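This section describes the prediction task in plain terms. A model, or a person checking by hand, is given the sequence of a single protein chain and must write out its three-dimensional structure as a string of tokens. No templates, partner chains or ligands are provided. The sample shown here is typical of the held-out split.
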Amino acid sequence: MTQKLANFMIGLFGGIASSLLGKYIVIFILSMIPILELRGGLIAASLFDLPMWQSFLVCFLGNIIPIPFILWLINPIFRKMRDWKHMGKVVIWCENKANSKKDQIENLKYLGLFLFVGIPLPGTGAWTGCLIAALLNMDKRKSCLAAFLGVVLAGVIMLVFSYGILGRII
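The expected answer:
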């Protein structure tokens, strides 16, 4: 699914992806988007035939930028959004999604957050992991570090997949 989304997003960026700088901008933006995150960025980088380590760095930076904002700001934003009729439904949906996965983090705390973010499976990643950590009122600094390290783990796994296995198939 991530590969299909990455291909779709590459198509949306069209002309910008024709230059080298444009390709790096695309993978950076893809890495910031929920669901795709670093996983989608590295798949796109592989499809663009960009160098592995530079792509890893760009995707890592793109994926970690939202982490502090989610951890420190999501609860106040959700409190404000609950007051709006339609936005309250969005908050409830996000909280239900996070609560359905919180058992994976709640028992192991920061190790659980690290593994949740680091093992690139559908429905996991920095966005969801940090949302869960914020809703569980986990220590923000420790959660930030666990999420950063999780993104590194996810990046290493995705490098093997994107540049190793996927690279040999394509």
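For orientation: Residues 66-152 form one domain.
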